[in-house]
Amino acid sequence: MKRKTLALLLAGAMTLSLLAGCGKDSGSTPSSNPGGTPSDSGGSGEVTDITLKVWCPSNQIDTGIMAEQQKAFQAEHPEWNITWDTTAVGEDTCQESVLRDVEAAADVFFFANDQLPDLVSAGAIAQLGGSAAEMVNSTMAPAVIDTAMSDGKLYAIPFTHNTFFMYYDKSLLSEDQVKSMEGIMGAETADNVYNFYFESSGGWKLGAWYYGAGLPVFGPDGSDLSAGVAWNNATGLAVSNYLIDLINNPKCAYDGEIAVSELIGDHRLGAWWDGAWNYDTYHDVLGDDLGMAVIPTFNPDGTDYQLLGFYGSKCIGVNAKSKNPAAAVAFAAFLGNEANQVLRFEKSAQIPTNMAAAESEAVKSNALATVLVNESNNCSVMQPVNTTFSARYWTYAGAIPTEMRSGAINKDNVQSKLDTFVAAMTAE
């Protein structure tokens, strides 16, 4: 499995005054360095009225981060008189919104990196070059940069790590119990308490079970189509039967039937998987009772396997059809620089991808950052981003938990269902 090391994720400090460039650097794009001296527009004194449409997750709007960044960017760029058009669009649904009408989509948008192949294929995202690419390559670790590339070309600016880990309620489960699924599900809890919350996220979290058992899709890095998919072998069958039992266990809450938010306030949920982006929400409810840990081991066939979640990043992209590409690229680079990554960490608990920001004492001493880095280093695999994987996996794998819950996949037919899944995944 392709692992990340602590050295890759949290390397030595590097800083760089950021210039934004798209394609090739003309040398005329002004700097974007918070607190720096506002640049002029070549001495002409001309001001251009422009509108920049921005799509970002609601937490960037609700916390005031985006408005603060927009104000600072405008102050640095008097050559543009910017009208901001900002809308809350989640990173998980950004691709769908962009591809619905690329020309009407945002100039700058936040998205999860697994959406990159489709955005590139549709010609919806601009390739980054010049000083924007230099900023990414000089301030971020190779493992992070890889998540924003397609066919060797850089298309986006990673701004936070995108993986999940385990939250748990310390009043219900102990630090030792959450080390394994057997410990979690075997814990004695009240009748109205669910020990675990199952959420597949359309296949994103589902993969942890099969990858953890040594069953990757299209080889270790997801690019070897000849390696196929072995989810229908004996190990895959054992994992699937384990999931059937888990999903239908009365002590396991199932996504779509009840929400985490409905349970945690009354201490009715032991453990669940989620990312750093929801830390504040959970901490506001549980306070000191909120625990965090890497995702656990599980034992489907007499062997303890470490679950392995997909690792990726959340990125900032620029619309290839933007009417104001220079300003859009400059703002995207500004959002991804060291100072603004620190700002997002301080106000919305998003762990920086910028190496210097990640080396700060505030980040290194933070419990959330610690568990996220531990998860990324030891309990994850790089999420494949090639087009074949994306075109097939999310469609076919995403349906598996739903069918297990409904009974359409059961222990009597699971082998044939897995055979059908593998055939669909590997069909030419």
Task: Characterise the protein shown here.
The protein is of the alpha/beta class and 428 residues long. It contains 20 helices and 15 strands. A hairpin with a 2-residue loop joins strand 4 and strand 5. The model is unreliable at 1-43 (pLDDT under 50).
Terminal residue distance:
25 Å
Q: What is the share of helical residues?
A: 25-40%
| Low-pLDDT sequence parts | 1-43
Mean model confidence by pLDDT: 88
Biggest sheet character: 6 strands, mixed
Principal-axes geometry comes out as: globular
Structural class: alpha/beta
Calculate Rg over CA atoms: 22 Å
The DSSP helix count reads 20
DSSP summary, beta strand count: 15
As a percent range, the share of strand residues is 15-25%
List the topology elements.
Elements (H helix, E strand, L loop, with lengths): L5 H4 L38 E9 L1 H5 L2 H12 L3 E9 L5 H7 L7 E5 L3 H6 L8 H10 L2 H5 L2 E2 L2 E2 L2 E6 L2 E5 L11 H6 L7 E5 L8 H6 L21 H14 L4 E3 L5 H5 L4 E6 L4 H8 L3 E4 L3 E2 L6 E2 L2 E10 L6 H11 L2 H11 L6 H4 L2 H4 L2 H12 L1 E3 L4 H11 L1 H8 L7 H13 L2
Parallel strand pairs: 1-2, 1-3, 8-9, 8-10, 14-15
Antiparallel strand pairs: 3-14, 4-5, 6-14, 7-10, 7-11, 12-13
